[in-house]
Structures
1.
Amino acid sequence: MRVAIVTESFPPVFNGVANSVVRVLETLKAEGHEAIVIAPTTPGKYFNGFRTYRVPSLPLFQFQLGLPNPLVSKILDDFKPDVVHAASPVLLGAQAVAWADRNQVPAVAIFQTDIAAYTERYGFKLLRPLVDRAMANFHAGATINLAPTTEVRDYLIRLGLSNVEVWGRGVDLELFHPNRKNSAAVTELRNRFAPNGQKIVGFVGRLAAEKQVDRFSELFSVPNTTFVIVGDGPERANLEQKFRGADVHFVGKQSGDELANHYAGFDAFVHFGTEETFGQTIQEAQAAGVPVIAPAAGGPKFLIDSGASGYLVDPTIKNGFTPVLTELLSSEELLSRIGEGGRRKVLDKSWAANNAKLLEFYASAMEMTKQPSLSELLVA
């Protein structure tokens, strides 16, 4: 199978969209499929053995917005894909979906970024209906549209889209594993961040306004705690200023074993953002056996069974997270039970299992666009 992946984010930029594309490429390589990548950013001409093509882009909020380009159609014409994979399509992805529609090539479009919600957060609430309509247009020509949760699926259907299915995200169950908790590397991290035996409360993610990391100040009254913020982004300087004098450690972006070790060093993971379409870092914390506290909004609602695999809190209640965190950290039995529950919640969500479902969607899209044979057209 020949797969053309057209994505709005790709390394060296790393976010949920880019990470999922990288994982899809790993699966395609393991299964012996051919692929190319078209994106606003690329680390070079090849990534993991696959040819990559970089297109011009402009910044939009914290994203690089890929711009439509005649070169995209030429690349697709030359590659002759069996299926087009549009990852979080905006202008660039919409061009690829339109190309697929014109050429009777199946297209699978994956909704991953709620641009309309970002429009509201950044002060353009009146533009929300226009952005909703634009997102519907970007996805309209796809053979199959994939949503991360049933809530997002219903939103896309309300926008008028058809053939919408649910496809979540996988998680690396070997990299993020409770066994790391007793490793020398994690012990060293804990000694550095909590030399007096404090409980470590962590966050992993991009430091942008929509993540609402500034609300961590609500938790500073919880006794015997220290806070570790993993990630980088446009809000980092503001957050460092806001949290000055508090027991907070900013460690920047981490990846691979270093990221996994930081998760394993947390006693609890807290996420305040209410605009997540999914919440990949929540799954990573769960895989690591770390109890999660998150808002009862967006993607987290579909990742956490409150009281069993984490806690969901009403995000509209100021300081509502504080008593939940206080109770959690006060009981080793509770920490252990909720952490184990989170791990169980994701045991069936390996990237291999997740991407096997994606390949099934590819096959379904190909079947839906298959041209009938002459014998099928003739009436006996």
2.
Amino acid sequence: GVTLRAFPALMLPVILLFGIYGGATTPTEAAAVAAAYALILTAFFYRSLNWKGLYQILLESARSSAAVGLVIGGALILNYIVASENIPNQLAGVLKEVDIEPLMFLLGINLLLLLLGCVLDATTLILVVIPLFIPSCRALGIDLVHFGVVVVVNSMIGLITPPYGILLFVINATTGIPLRSIIKEIVPFLMALLVALATIVLSPDLVLWLPRLLGYNA
């Protein structure tokens, strides 16, 4: 039946989670195994992939990998310059001198990330901008796990905010719905994410209770 035919595809997240949480693979390796599994499944089990389709998949993968590679390369160069000039520690020293409260620092960072998220993709934001503020977080006593969750939620919001919101263009490309209509419908979800972000910023324990339950002591 339909369920039986869909069963191999439904095993994909199981392979991912078992590989990561079972300690068999790193997240990157698990993604590679899952991609290979999906490719084999599509080609031999469902027989819906021909040579032309495979070529298009490899072409798109190469383009995406090249774009990410360029971002990572640029980020490494920038991070080297920033580290050489000791900018993060200088920034942390300035913040300690002005005696800024951790909450005010987080609110400022949120505002900056929300603005940058409108024009930068999440990968660039995380690789280029975030390392600048990690020493400041340590100096102000902000838990890095809490800070990481704040960054991720900000990045999620950036994915659906114009003008760069990549998910808006993905929805537009796959459904043909005009961007104006998509943006109008996405506003309630955006508001919910902003409320969630405010709650996370104001309540670190809400984020940290599960890591602490699993032995996190920092």
